[in-house]
Amino acid sequence: MTSNALTVPAVALGTWAWGDSGEAGDGYFGSQLSESGLREVVETAQSEGFTLWDTAVAYGMGRSETVLGRALAGLDRGRYQLSTKFTPQLAGDGDDPVADMLSQSLARLDTDYVDVYWIHNPADVERWTPSLIPLLRSGRVRHVGVSNHNVKEIALADQILGEAGFRVEAVQNHFSLLYRGPERAGVLDYCREHGLPFFAYMVLEQGALTGRYSPANPLPEGSNRAAAYNEVLPRLQALTDRMGAIGEARGASAAEIATAWALAKGTTPIVGVTKAAHVDGLVRARGIELDEAEIAELEALADATGVDTRGWWEQEM
Fold it and tell me: Looking at residues 153-161, what average pLDDT do you find?
């Protein structure tokens, strides 16, 4: 068993968009990022107590890990946590693809261990999970989580790790006002019953739930997220307008209300941060308590959109 329990923050910091920074303005999010700007994000986040950084090989095919490693350079390694992922669909054909992918991630992140290592997608739980055991024993991986797994797959991974004295210590799935599949399929209940923290990614639906975008102001043309969301922005208007109104009464934005909703559901949201101002929003969201009537109203408005944001890479829960 790992010697120390995973330290779970109120909010984790997502760096999927940092994968775009290999070529400014080109990538999944259409982000234009600079090393100095991201270093400012790191310094602001660290000063506010947001210290768990979530990335993956798949985010820009290693670019996110590389940029994150540079942004964290010089900081005491004990002051922050790193979370990255093994993606079976990107596995090489060597003798130990999991260890190989981890080694590449460690080199890009400029560290000798990761605090949380996730199996990014289930693919074949019985095949990939055992490879995590020697990595845990070596200390190169401190804690193991599973991402995009359903209840049956989480339980199987936990059983495999349990036979070696370890366990699944966290679950990370897509969860937002527009996509509540993990809740409806019992994943959140399973996590509560087994004392597992649930990390919710895409809480802001790649910007579509921030209130910043609308039919008149669509997401960046040419980006993958524009292709996924611009068409449905008119259907989201009533929801984002109401989120904005609830936020206005608290001195907060629609994005902060979306984050506060995820917190109210007992999850740890992973929120993408590309500007220091985004961290200020997380500070506000952390202090917002939505009441039951507000939560029910937002969920009803979200259901009324008829929008399904399950990604092409995500299985039905």
Answer: 98
